[in-house]
Amino acid sequence: MTFSPLWQEENTLESFIIDKTKYFKGRQKLIEKLEKFLLHKASASDILNETKGYILTGFSGCGKSAVFSMLCRHLEALKEEKN
SUPFAM superfamilies recorded for this chain (predicted)? Predict the structure, then answer.
């Protein structure tokens, strides 16, 4: 059986997210801040006066990928709640 490249990419990403969130602890305030930023509907004044984006930096292995994986999980849960 052959799988499409899109299916393979989605499967790889899902496996990555599962692995990175398995032992995730803490950083709830950071997740909430990023989630709020991503879901915020910006007005013209917001665009001119507020934060335009975030850069998450840190040494190798400090948890950057885990934070984004957990953020993905939170956004998926919100999407499911709406449906």
Answer: P-loop containing nucleoside triphosphate hydrolases (SSF52540)
Token pair of 13 as six digits: 């990403």
Q: How far apart, in Å, are the Cα atoms of 25 and each of 15, 45, 77?
A: 19, 36, 18
Kindly state the DSSP code that residue 54 receives in the 8-state scheme: -
Residue among 81, 70, 83 at smallest CA distance from 32: 70
Q: Check if the beta carbon of residue 30 is closer than 8 Å to that of residue 76.
A: no
Task: Report residue 43's pLDDT band, with 50, 70 and 90 as the boundaries.
Answer: low
**How distant, in Å, are the alpha carbons of 3, 50, 56, 64, 78 from that of 59?**
36, 27, 10, 9, 30
Look up the pTM and report it.
0.72
Q: What is the DSSP letter of 26?
A: S
